[in-house]
Design brief:
single chain, 325 residues, alpha/beta, 12 helices, 8 strands, EC 3.6.5.4, P-loop_NTPase, SRP54_N_sf
C-alpha cells in the first residue's frame, strides 16, 4: 500500500475480453447482498391472504423505512401493495415481487448514463462531494468508463485545498495514461480549471473531469469558489459546466440525502453517482434519493476495482435490492 492510500500496483485492467452482462449482474447481487438481506429480513413474517390489511401495510411501510428506502418511497410502495390482489396469497415472495416492480418504477426515470454530447468539445464535468465520499477514486473510474467508450479524457485537479487530493488524482492519471492539469496546493481552483479547459480544447479532448473541494464547513466559501469556477468556464464556453455530478457514499444512509439538499443549493447539482454500495446494508438510500429528488443517477459503484463503476439497469437493480434472482 502506498503512502497516499492507493494500491502500489496499478489496478487498471489489461486489455482482454470485456465483462459480460451476466458478470455485472453477479457482482450487483454480491454488492447488494447486505442491502437485500436487510430488506428481506425487515419484511419477513409479514404475510396475508388475497389482500393485505391496514396493520400489515403499516408493518410493511415501517420495514421499508427501516431499510433506508425513505418515507416517500415507502408510502408509495405501501399504496401499491394496498391495491394488489394476491391471487395465491401474500407470501414473502409475492410481496417482494410487488416491491421490486415499484422500485423499478422509481428508478427508471433517473437511470441516465453520463453521455458525452457537448459540441464544441470538451464536455466539462464538475465532480463534487464531501471529503471521504470516494470522490477522487470515482473520478478515476468515471474517466475509465469514458475511455471504454473510446472518448479521450483529461483530469483537472481543482481541489487545491488538499495536497493529497492533487497527488492522488495525479497517480490515477498516470495509471490511466491520461493528461492532468494541476496547480500548487492552496492555489486558485478557477485558474486550474481555466488552464484545463484551454488545454483540453487545444488538444481536442472529449471529456474534461474536474475535481473540486469537498469541504462543507464553510458553505459560503465553497459556494463562492464554485461560482468563480462557473464564471471562468462561462468565459471559455457558455455551456460549461455541462454536468455537476455529486458523489455520494451509500454507507452514510439517510445522511446522503441531506448532502444532496446542501449541494443542490451550493453547486446546482445536475446528477448523482453513488459509491460503496457493496460495503453497506443501506443501499436502499439509492431508492430514497431517486424518489425524493428525481435527479439523474449516472452510475453506481459496487467495488474498489477500476471497472466497478457502471450505469445501471433499473429493472435488474430493483430485483437485486429486493433479493429476487
Amino acid at each position: 500500500m502506498s503512502t497516499d492510500g492507493l494500491p502500489a500496483a496499478p489496478t487498471v485492467p489489461e486489455t482482454g475480453p470485456s465483462e459480460t452482462e451476466g458478470d455485472w449482474s453477479d457482482r450487483l447481487f454480491g454488492g447488494f447482498r447486505r442491502t437485500s438481506e436487510r430488506l428481506t429480513g425487515n419484511l419477513s413474517g409479514i404475510v396475508g391472504g388475497g389482500r393485505l390489511d391496514s396493520a400489515q401495510l403499516d408493518a410493511l411501510e415501517d420495514a421499508l423505512i427501516m431499510s433506508d428506502l425513505g418515507p416517500r418511497a415507502a408510502a408509495r410502495i405501501r399504496d401499491r401493495l394496498a391495491e394488489e390482489r394476491f391471487e395465491r396469497g401474500a407470501d414473502e415472495r409475492a410481496i417482494m415481487e410487488v416491491v421490486a416492480r415499484e422500485i423499478a418504477e422509481i428508478l427508471r426515470p433517473v437511470a441516465k448514463p453520463l453521455d458525452v454530447v457537448a459540441f464544441p468539445r470538451p464536455q466539462v464535468v464538475l465532480v463534487i462531494g464531501v471529503n471521504g465520499s470516494g470522490k477522487t477514486t470515482t473520478i478515476a473510474k468515471l474517466a475509465h468508463l469514458f475511455q471504454e467508450q473510446d472518448y479521450s479524457v483529461m483530469l483537472a485537479a481543482g481541489d487545491t485545498f488538499r495536497a493529497a487530493a492533487i497527488g492522488q488524482l495525479a497517480v490515477w492519471a498516470d495509471r490511466l495514461s491520461i493528461p492532468i492539469v494541476r496547480g500548487p496546493e492552496g492555489g486558485d481552483p478557477a485558474s486550474v480549471v481555466f488552464d484545463a479547459v484551454k488545454a483540453a480544447t487545444d488538444q481536442g479532448i472529449d471529456a474534461l473531469i474536474v475535481d473540486t473541494a469537498g469541504r462543507l464547513q464553510n458553505k459560503r466559501e465553497l459556494m463562492d469558489e464554485l461560482a468563480k469556477i462557473h464564471r471562468v468556464l462561462g468565459r471559455l464556453n457558455p455551456e460549461a459546466p455541462h454536468d455537476v455530478v455529486l458523489v455520494l457514499d451509500a454507507t452514510n444512509g439517510q445522511n446522503a440525502l441531506s448532502q444532496i439538499e446542501i449541494f443542490k443549493e451550493v453547486a446546482g447539482v445536475s446528477g448523482l453517482i453513488m459509491t460503496k454500495l457493496d460495503g453497506t446494508a443501506r443501499g436502499g438510500v439509492l431508492v430514497a434519493a431517486a424518489e425524493q429528488y428525481g435527479l439523474p443517477i449516472h452510475a453506481i459503484g459496487v467495488g474498489e476495482k477500476i471497472d466497478d463503476l457502471r450505469p445501471f439497469n433499473p429493472d435488474l437493480l430493483a430485483r437485486v435490492i429486493a433479493g429476487i434472482a
